[in-house]
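Hi! If you just cloned this repository, the fastest way to understand the data is to look at a raw example. We've pasted two of them here, unedited. The first protein comes first, obviously.
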Amino acid sequence: MSEISEADSAAELDAELEAERLALLELLLEEESEEATSAPAAAIEHATAQERIPLSLSQRRLWIADRLDPGTALFNIPASQRLSGKLDIRALRAALQALVDRHESLRTTFSTAGGDLGAPGARGASEGFQVIARHREVDLPRIDLSLLPLSLALQTALRLSGLSQSRSFDLERGPLLRFALIEMAPRDSVLLVTMHHIIADGWSLSIFQREFAAFYAGFAKNQPATLPALPIQYADFALWQRDWLRGEVLENQLAFWRDHLADAPFLAELPTDRPRPRVRNFRGGKVARLVADSVTEAFHRLVRGEGVTYFASALALGHAWLGRLTQSDDALIGSPIAGRHRVETEGVIGFFVSNLVFRAQLRGDPTAREVLVRTREETLAILSHQDVPFDLLVEALAPERDLSTTPIYQVQLMAFEAQHRADAAAQAEDEMARTAAMGGLRLTPLTSGDEMSMFDLSVTVAEGGRRLALQYNRDLFDVATVERMAGYFENLMAAFVAEPDRHLSEVAMIGQDERRQLLLEWNPPSARAAFSRKTLLPEWVAIHAADRPQAIAVEMGDMSLTYAELDERSNALARYLRMFGVGPEVRVGLCLTRSLDLVVGLIAVLKAGGAYLPLDPTYPIDRLAGMIEDAGLMLLLAHDATLDALPAGTAYVINLDRTDEMAAMMGVGGAGADGGAPEPPPGPGPEHLAYVIFTSGSTGRPKGVMLAHDGLANLCAEQARIFAVGPESRVLQFASVSFDASVAEIAVALCAGAALVLARPDDLLPGPGLVRLLASRRITKATIPPSALAVLPAGA
């Protein structure tokens, strides 16, 4: 692998991909689907003239976005070109005018009509419609920078290109594209071109460049080019789409998507460097790298053997990569589709592009080979239901809207094969022929270097996998993080090749350098030796009970337990739990009020060798039922006050408020061999599970996160060292026991022999009461969330 230079990344990669981006993707997807498309057989025809042409379904989304946020430049498309060679300005202006005359979309503006134009999902609100001008004169202002040195002139041109891209368009007044000519030197100019996305897409840029070159070549020779007449205009497509995609056709398409994305996580839990801002912006960055030819060639041999096309194979890698990043077997990736199923649309400038949503097929820990096959099948199914525009899909699925993120998916993947030398040679020959036809004038796409990122992450796999680029949102990620992610993608490709029958969970995604950093630099032998024999949390309670029996272990209000009392009560309950079969890897639910019993029950489960699962009694009963089922709980600890919160019949309940239960508990075990206290039950080993805590479920179904005793011991030792927690410390237990922050509070305090102070329910309310609690209880360590800190009184 070798790194691409910044200039190569910003210029060569962007220039190569921008013009071909959606065109190549469409060709690949058509190859994948063959006859799987569900587009109707009827051709699109010229529509009869009508006063109001409705918006296409894709245009409707951008029109609504503009109405909600007038003046936004988010949907501007840059298409500027550097012109090298002798320039005929007369031919340039004539070529631009010919393009505008040829394509109605370049003469289109948008207005508002009351009533419903039949749009799927419309509810009688005002609809936009297209206004097509018979003629629009091209305006080509000229900016003379020829007195500046060429390097400075080029920098100025780039800044002007960025300014043009950042200027908004007025959809009602138009025009929705603008030109400017920047003259830098006698044989070096820049043609600034900016369009609004509502009239063009990535495929359209290729049409624009190709037809501009043909028109310019003709006018320069005083022989105007005669291009074949367009079979349709964009407005014809809009009318055809509105007429066809409705009723039963639309409902059948939507039914597939509702089923395919049922219970899907609409927010990817990516390992971001910073919290997501309340309102997303689109400041982007890009990381690019080259993958070794040996890896990409072997990868292509593998996928051809499985009958998987290039796009599906790149998507399979994306699924595996995203699944590992999010630690999930269920994740969504989006990919653009050119939306030009009909041959009539291929030469039309307009907004056809839409987005498809692919769902990772990773359940059951498949092998790399199985992921390839599953993704091939998924791709074929999706391509046969690709006609629903993305905005209608969002409307139908109705995900919870969040201004901080894109709806449904946040990671996009694009793949372009174009890897063969013969293809590259043919492209070079075409470019040479075009340059010759234009009298030696060479066109080179101009990139301003200003990156925008519509998504959290966008992965581009080009040249058959040899060229890899990750575009990212700079509000969420540092460049070093994204560079590692790019390395993970490359490592997965190599792993697919090396061991295609290995399960994904067994595939190493990190490289040798990062492995060395993790194992040696960040975890040197001296540190590993310090943890070679870990004292576990239940063992620490017994140690402190023997060394400092009267020291306070836990207190709440006026009640408290010494370490000796905590040890005795937890031992008794642990022996009782052993009678019910609790031992290593057995999970026990704790549905208890905030109380001393909560700590006793937690330690007792660990002493019995089991693992505890906190169940917040304030949670909805359906959620508790799902957690109990997923964890396979057979036993629960509860109080009278929490019994009603539990789903009926899911597990046996030990009620710690019942006196007969407590008497039975205290009577288990009898006296020890020396007539004293009975022996504690055998405890867990370092490798045994300590606890399970479920995620919030904000991105879908809650997932249980598990930690073993050795990891918990490491956590306690390090946090006690970092925060100087010792026997004289008083640690506040503030977090809900259902959140992982409570683990550090409880375990660190008890391992260190400190006093654990439970906040009463009234103390949990932020404000003056919390300040009084910290002072009256002489708290030395507290973990308080920013939301609570923000409302503390000034000077607290």
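Ok, and the second one:
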Amino acid sequence: MQPNNSINQFQDTGNESPLADFLNKYLPYWPYFAILVIMGLTSAWLYLRYTSKVYETKATLLIKDDKKGAGGDLGPLQAFDLFGSVNSVENEAAILKSRTLMQEVVRNLHLYAPVFVTGRVQSHSGYASCPIRVESPFPDSIKSPKLNEKSEIPFTFSREKQLVTIQNKNYPLNTFIETPYGKLKFVINKNYELTKDYSSVSTIDYFFELRNVERTANAYIRNTTISTDNKSNVISLSIKDEVPQRGEDILNELLKVYNQASILDKNMLAGNTLKFVEDRLKFVSQELDSVERNLQNFRSQNQITDITTQGQIYLQTVAENDQKLSEIDMQLAALDQVEKYVRTGGAVGGIVSISSMNIPNPAFTANIQKLAELELQYTQLKKTVPENNPQLQSIVDGINKLKPTIIENVSNQRKNLLASRKDLAQVNNSYNSLLRTVPAKERELLSISRQQVIKNDIYTFLLKKREETALSYASAVPDSRIIDKAQTSLQPVSPKRSLTYIIALILGLGIGFIIFYLKDLLSTTIQDRSEIETLTKMPILSEILYDDSKAAIVVADGKRSFIAEQFRQLRTSLGFMGLDEGHKKILLTSSISGEGKSFIAINLAISLSLIGKKVILLELDLRKPKLSDILTISRSVGVSNYLINKKTIEEIILESGIDNLSIITSGPLPPNPSELLSNGKMNQLLTKLETEFDYIIMDTAPIGPVTDAYILSPLSDITLFLIRYNYTPKVFVKKLEEIRKNNALKNSAIIYNGIKPRGVRGYGYGAYGKYGYGYGYTEERLKKKWWKIS
């Protein structure tokens, strides 16, 4: 007989939404989730309570670039900045994050000796909350303590006595003194904000640490972010620190040190030029002094006060040419020094500013200026990156490519200057012939006066260049401007309260989901109806709850417990399987022993008998019979006696003590049950019983270990396969699908037995279960405490 398709309409189709399935699976565990969420939120509160807050401090810096107009109009001081250069924003950002600058910041702010205030749970920084600051005369010599050495150095401070106490020994303020930890000085902390209760300062415990400057600088570098904007020359600086004041001081000091280093590097060119001019001045000054002395002596000895008009014209003309010759000589000297610098790789005196020497060659001057800029970039970048850095190598390549061009320019410029010098000398020679028309004394006076004018003009020129260079050197300004000084955010950036609580909530729920998901995933037995539906397409006819009373018989006349109602519902559902007057034989089997076949068989039989139908129970588990024990009936006579022709059918039918219910026990246990069930007499027995009873219920052995159910299933009309919650192995349910496909069990359906509520008692399956069975209908209440977990 084929199963009635209407059973699929009666049963849950399994087409619920994923959300509904998810809620059905996990909602019963809501108290666990609530506990985990409370634990998570409590942990988050403790974390926020005892974790130091981190604030973000920001500052912005503008790198001046006249090519982009970023520098604005030149100010009065910038007008004297003869040696300014265009800077790369990326290079300046790398310099700002260099270890060299940050180490200088650590030294200047004495961050190598941080002070802490001892707390009850945890200590916190005393940068702005401790009245004392610790300084060392040799911070670079501080070494980090070894792993087994205690780095904390406790001390107390007495405001009244102005003393610091370390290990019961007092030390005065503002003086470098020898301590067990080296030479130190204790000074008043300018960042400390005095409170009204001054006496409390003496009762607070402090401690300080001595840290390696390099490691301390690296730690602050890791917390510092330097970013650039591609659309502008603005550099953004930010640092994260637990103390807002310290973050602001670090950024402000970093900008200060950066500007000082920038000015220092920038003044290299001005210093070299100034040294060159000073050297020339000394030489020219000596020559001018000698010429003036000769002129004075000549005038005194010969009593000459004036020369002729012709001599004055000669003197003026020759003086102009001689000044030009002197300028050419100075330019040639500058070219010689540039050539030496380029050829020796910068070993001779340093490069000078050609623009200050008035060499009339813009291309040559631009090349010299570009070389100076590349040298400056190389010096700055070398502080921040290793020698093999690609950017540094690129600068070196640029310098190496530029030097041959400069040497060639020097050669060409020298030729031009020598040619000009030759032309001027020829003009002077033509004027020298005029001297022969002048009397001897006047001629000699003109010659001496000429030398005096030449040297005086050169001396005046050098004095002017020295003043210009010195003014530029003294008034050098950095190639950057601070747009915004360091300012700290009002709210901490870490930890974020709302985000921390959200994460704690998600973690609490997530851990719960993971625990119960793994519980189901790692379980080898059936835990949920959905697992059955996933493993096999055999229809589920009914679900039977686990009975807390553990009574073998739960169905009785007038009894309206929830489980009794489930058996009544099972009785009704059998009609959808085709149970009627012509199809009345029901076979119960399962995968393994202990899944509740006998329990279902006897209570189903009682439920059928309560509607006035004659029902007979056949105890066909000839290996481990249980029905007779439940009904306390002797197995001295039973089906085994009939199968070996020792008893008739009428002799083995026994009364159960329940109205309309009879039973045939297993009888004495035979050695060969399968052979007896296969001898053909079972068909005769069932044919006879069909004429006398309305329903026949057969309780057989499980199909896992033996084949009895396979033998008896063809003789039945309906086969009910028992699967028990948290008992039946999943592997047997997988095999059940093969049995269904092979039609090894006739007209089969599943009874999901022994279901216990998931999570808290009363949630999940049962009175508040997936299908809403029993709302306000049963008269029994769950008697266990609500928090008891299955």
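That's it. A detail worth noticing about the second one: The CA atoms of residues 591 and 732 lie 6 Å apart.
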